[in-house]
What does this fold into?
Amino acid sequence: MKRKWQRWFRLLPLAALALLLSGCGKEGVSALEPLGPVAKDQADLMLISVLIMVVVVLVVGFIYFYVLIRFRKRKGQEDYIPKQVEGNTTLEIVWTVIPIVLLCILAVPTVPKTFSLSDTHSAKKESALEIEVSANQFWWQFTYPKQKVTTAQDVVIPTDRPVVFKLTSNDVIHSFWVPALGGKVDANPGQVTTLKLEADKEGTYRGRCAELCGSSHALMYFNVKAVSSAEFDRWIKEMKAGPDQPASASAKQGEQLFKQNCMSCHAVGASQTNKLAPNLTNFADRKYIAGFLDHDKKTLEKWIADPSALKPGATMPARGASGKLTDEQIKQIADYLFTLSVEK
Amino acid sequence: MTTHAQSLAVSSQRKGFLHWLWTWITTVDHKKIAILYLFGGGLFFLIGGIEALLIRIQLAVPNNHFLVGSEYNQVMTMHGTTMIFLAAMPLIFAMMNAVIPLQIGARDVAFPFVNALGFWLFFLGGIVLNTSWFFGGAPAGGWTAYTPLATEYLGSGMDFYILGLQLSGAGTLMGAINFLVTIINMRAPGMTFMRMPLFCWTSLVTSALILFAFPPLTVGLFFEFFDHIFHANFFNTANGGNGIIWEHIFWIFGHPEVYILVLPAFGIISEVVATFSKKRLFGYSSMVFATVLIGFLSFMVWVHHMFTVGLGPVANAVFAIATMTIAVPTGIKIFNWLFTMWGGQIHFTTANLFAIGFIPTFVMGGVTGVMLAVPPADAQYHDSYFVVAHFHYVILGGVVFGLLAGVFYWWPKMFGRMLNETLGKITFWFFFLGFHLTFFPQHFLGLMGMPRRYFTYLPGEHFELGNMLSSIGAFGMAVGVIVLLINIVVTTAKGKRAKGDAWGIGRTLEWSIASPAPEYNFAQTPLVKGIDAFWKEKMAGNKKMTPAEPLGDVHMPSPTVIPFLMSLSLTLASFGFIFAANQAGKPHTGGLITAAIGIGLMLLLMLIHSIKDDHGFHIHKEEIMRIEKEAE
It folds into this structure.
């Protein structure tokens, strides 16, 4: 009996290790693969605490298995009465003091990092880029106040400087989380919170909402696209210039329909902030539709025809504000939306 | 089996089902109320468990369409709320009711009437909450019910949450006051505080925590109640309220709640480990000290649930250090358990397997707790599956393992029959391995970026393997629970009868009397000569406790239906308020009138109870002598 379970327990750490190695998550998504200085600082603290805790678990585990094996009840000892030990002051002091020491080792780096990572004021002096984020059920709006540019769902940041996000919410509490770049901060209605992040290298990092915010909490994704400083400046310019006029007849027709059916909530034009629905100025450049759907016309048509079927609780009405768009008209609007590109 | 239970069985055969039901509805006997709590809590534990399985079915594969959007949020909210308030809490009270009076050598609790009232309020509160499934949907704002989502964006489900928890919370508060007074005032002669079994100590501290932690919840729920039903603006930001205040109020209750649940589990583990090592508890005084310290510190750490709210580095740093300090007394407990077993003779009974399984599991939950106390790192862990893994290690691996140890350990004392050990061990292994398979991978899912409360995840994010393992593990635990139910049914039908000292190595007073305990508990109040009083007497060669009084008539409280009726009238008032709530405008008058009738009935019943003179009844000396003789 004993042999069997011992063998099983020996397998446990192996299984754990296998799991650990099998996937640290996809790059650009996982907190285990930090890709910016903030996330790296946080990962370092995680590592310190994990190491201390592994020591604790190993010590406890060693005593535990030793005790279980050494002092188990054996056959023919039914009448044995162990010595009734009251306690041992020395031992008790030892296992009070050692944890205190371990906790001090953990607390010492914790406190300064708590202050430095939330210090967005000195970051500003380093000419950090400021971006205002307003969270909505279930999408994100990003405004660059100095540059006077507004966009939604995909936020573009430069790699050469820190970015200070100023977060607020227009409805319920959301939480802004880009695991690969750093920890999260809540977006509270009626308040502004700040979060400093920085990306080391160019790439697209997945962001998500981390505070339960309603039916489609699980689908409230966004992307952080980190680009070089020069590319960022060019992007700002292109955003301000706006997309080209649609060329095809179908897209032109779509633009008219869009103006009649969608413009009461959506905006096209980077200078316009609109709280009701995402700004679509560079819609065609984005990675996903509605933050998570494949970026193609077929999906877009499906989305316009019935948004809440794909994203429960989405406030966008089916088939336009009138609710009467035909399949043909939806197709034209989709054609138009796919002309909304600013990147040359 | 005592003649009392036999006579009950006979009378129920004679008078039928209704009489049987009536005896349970009107009982004020702590041993029967314990059984009511056990089955009430057990019922909700099964419901919450089914909800957990539904969650795991939905998350087994990416982009699943089994439970989507609000449906998932409802099941997830009800799983959390049910498990915390309607399963773990009452199961703790079941253990306390079954054991505390016996362990301190008392004949009943201090307030038997309040005890019954507490149970019925909890049970009907749970029913109110669960009826939401049939009236427009369950609450969907998470068990934390953060505002403004819960108060302004969700439908009527939240009314059921607010009033259901208000009712069951009132019951919990009453139960706590009752046990505080019982433990302080009703100990047998010689049972000083420092001779109490550790389960009594942890129950005492837990009751004190409830006394201070539940009022904030009650007040917070009243705020949500006024916001939701009368359109007040406590948490409405647009009209000058502040939603963050709710988070503070909730966690000022919510963090001590964790210790309210886990301290009694610590107590159970201390009893079980000591008994089945045939040793007294190592470092008893430091265990008591650690318990009190944990209780005290538990009120100083609530902000660690709010590190990402944006309260600033000063608040976060202070609460981080405060949180870390809790690890010290908890560590003391772990080592004391290990050294209780050191040099002992460890019996691997099912109860002890759960206690032994508890130790490494709780250490895991504890160390991840310390990791979560580091605010910059917590910014990554917070609201991710890492947290889900952590609190399931603490609450399922801690509290529920402890409760299952207690159920197997005290079952013979409660019901007079032993549970089957083979089936028990099957339950343990399915539950233990299933548990770790479910929750260990979730640590990694969280670090890999999977947030909690997500109804789905997309393919290609590397979340598939962990979630599939998790779902398989959950079904493993379900098998364990089913085997436990089979065990209960089989042994109730033809189980081995339990002796008074059911395990043969009992140490505390409850094992010195018959199993199940007779209605009056102790024929003669015992004289306690030291810690582990019964063990001491056995070592001195005595079979029984030394009595502290001559044999005489025992005074008993009369059964009464008033607690049940009071709870019913408050349930009526709750439904009145729920149906008065109106998203758009003024509350409905009909609902308000119903609520007023319910409250009026409650006041009337209180008046009747105050005026009615009930002297109780006596069990006569001759009757007691007859019962005691038959038990031998």
